[in-house]
Amino acid sequence: MSAWTELVTAALIGTERQAKIPEAGLLKLQALDPESKVLGQAAALGLQRRAGGQVETTARTPLPSSPPEERPAVDEHAARRLGQILVAHPTLLPEWLLLAARTGRRAPHGALPALLDAGRQSRALRPLVLPLLGGRGAWLAQHNRDWSWALGAEDEGETAEIWQTAGREARALALRRERERDPRAALALLSSTWASEPPDDRAAFMAALSVNLSQADEDFLEAALDDRRREVRAQAADLLAQLPQSRLARRMHSRLAPLLQLERGHLLKRSVLRVELPGECDKSMVRDGLNPKFSGGTGVGERAWWLQQLVGRTHPDFWTHRWDLTEARIVELARASEWAGPLLNGFAESAARCAHARWADALLQERDTFDEQYRLLVAALPEERREALALRQLRYTGKHLPPGVALILHASTHPWSAELTRALLARLRALMHQAPDSARWPWQGLLTHAALHAPPELADEIQAAWPTQAPHWEAYQHLAEQFTATLHLRHTIHKELSS
User: Fold this and answer.
1) pTM of the predicted model, to two decimals?
2) What's the rounded Cα separation, in Å, for the pair 346 and 377?
């Protein structure tokens, strides 16, 4: 009888009736009682039996090989730099990806898992990662669900297949890429499955229509105003508000025409903007995106809140065409109105949504509220106007930064000019001579941001200009050295990817 059989017998008849408990091979257990000894021996013998058994095997079909690469990888210096960035300097990854894509080369194979993970975690990185994946990256995406967002990266013809078989993330990205290539084809693709899409998917796909938005999208968006999903309805209303010839735009015009009347001045009488508040927020207004529920805390009443939303969802060009006035003149009239707050906030909301540079410029001229809306208006400005606004504020003399500068610069993600960079750092050097440590805190995030957008070729010039003998140098030394180190690293990246 085997030891295993003896143990089974002892367990069945009980240890009180079994005189001898078998030993488990080479293992001698010291148990306080027979019951514990049986259990211990069973565990040991069970492990022995499993270790000596045959491993079950299943037939596996080998994976197909990845396709051959059509483009060479970046050189070894750039490849090593990418590894360094992925580990220690992730904020520099977008710039490296953008510069590498311009070379026409691809990322090294060893970096593909990290890049695919980066794209999984950050949707903003995906358009930058995709051009560098090559055939191997697309192949990897086919075999890892976490990386499925990159499906079809190398083959434009795969969009239809991805749309039918892939998950939400991959489909949303494929739809966005198709909108960039052929907006009408992308709309047709979305329309073909729209009725059967789950609500969460419809909300995710609607955002892609912001790419190359045009009047051709109006019928689809108008129908989406009646979608059962609130997020879909809201997105449709936002997109239609950007189309000045849409039916939603005409409905807004008819609602506002009797509420805002311009009395033109003559001789000594000045022009006046007469404002009447809406009497209700009816179902048709709610369908067009207005929120009827007044939450308070805005400094205005319920009817003024409705007016602000009506103006905010009306394309800003409507007013310049209707009254044949410049944006600056309309803003001036609104400021003089009894309802200046709702009007100006509505104009600002509309200008930001439509990224209307002239309206944004006019609204920013004398705006003294530095909030999220201010940042959105700044983002609507072209780069040169944004920099001009920042330079004007940097000329303000004082120990502390003007409150709007940080908002302007944080909204400026384009490559900065040398003039703007030098003006900003001149203010910082002045603070090192005259300001106490309390003036340092606004610079921490600002310098980190500036280091990513300042011209990297200024690294040596900036390093040489730091006033290391200034009274307050030590308070700012770490910030300054970190800024310069980032600029030097960016300069190296530019050189490696331009050769």
Assistant:
1) 0.78
2) 12
Given a contact cutoff of 8 angstroms between Cβ atoms, the answer to whether 205 and 172 are in contact is: yes
pLDDT class of 26 with cuts at 50, 70, 90: very low
Hey, where are the domains in the chain? 3-50, 76-147, 157-243, 249-348, 385-498
Which among 335, 365, 363 has a CA at the least distance from the CA of 349?
A: 363
Residue 153 DSSP symbol: S
**CA 391-382-349 angle, 5° bins:** 100
What would the pLDDT profile of 43-57 be if each residue is shown by its tens digit? 777 777 666 655 445
Residue 319 has pLDDT above 60, yes or no: yes
- What is the spatial distance between Cα 179 and Cα 175, in angstroms, rounded to a whole number? 6
pLDDT above 80 for 103: yes
Q: Exposed e or buried b for every residue in 120-152, given b needs 16+ CB within 10 A?
A: beeeebbbbbbbbbbbbbbbbbeeeeebbbbbb
- Is residue 316 within 8 A of residue 353, CB to CB? The reply is no
The whole-chain average pLDDT of the chain stands at: 88
Among candidate residues 325, 185, 167, the one with its CA nearest the CA of residue 260? 325
Please check whether residue 307 is in contact with residue 258, taking contact to mean a CB–CB distance below 8 angstroms.
no
Q: Which long-range contacts (CB under 8 A, 24 or more apart) does 186-191 make?
A: 187/216, 187/217, 187/220, 189/159, 189/160, 189/163, 190/220, 191/220
CA gap 284, 286 in Å, rounded: 5
In this prediction, residue 438 carries a pLDDT of: 63
Q: How do 260-263 and 272-275 pair as beta strands? A: antiparallel
